[in-house]
Recover the amino acids of this structure.
C-alpha cells in the first residue's frame, strides 16, 4: 500500500513538473521611474495579457527594477502604481521565448 501511494505521488509530481513542457517561456522585466527619472522602490507593477486575462503582479526593488521569470510568450500590457500615482498602460509588449524583454514605466508628476 505504501509503495502504491509513493508511486502515485511520484507520478503526480512528474505530471506537475512537465505540465508546461513545450510551452515557450521568456522573462519580462524593467524599471519604474518617477516624473524626474529617478527609480521608484516598492512600486506595484500590474502585468496582464493584452485581452485583460492572466494578471500578474510584481514589485520593484531598491533600484526600481522588477522581473517576472518563466512567463508564457505573447503580448502583455503593463502599468505601475506607487503612493496614488498610476502610469499609463504600456500596451502590446512582446515577450519572446528564452529572452528577456525590458520595459521602462514612468509615473506621472502629480497625485491621481
Amino acid at each position: 500500500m505504501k509503495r502504491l501511494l509513493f508511486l502515485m505521488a511520484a507520478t503526480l509530481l512528474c505530471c506537475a513538473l512537465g505540465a508546461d513542457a513545450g510551452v515557450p517561456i521568456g522573462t519580462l522585466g524593467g524599471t519604474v521611474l518617477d516624473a524626474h527619472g529617478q527609480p521608484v522602490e516598492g512600486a506595484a507593477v500590474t502585468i496582464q495579457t493584452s485581452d485583460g486575462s492572466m494578471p500578474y503582479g510584481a514589485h520593484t526593488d531598491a533600484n526600481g527594477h522588477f522581473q517576472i521569470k518563466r512567463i508564457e510568450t505573447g503580448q502583455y500590457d503593463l502599468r505601475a502604481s506607487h503612493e496614488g500615482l498610476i502610469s499609463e498602460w504600456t500596451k502590446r509588449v512582446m515577450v519572446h521565448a528564452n529572452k528577456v524583454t525590458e520595459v521602462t514605466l514612468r509615473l506621472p508628476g502629480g497625485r491621481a
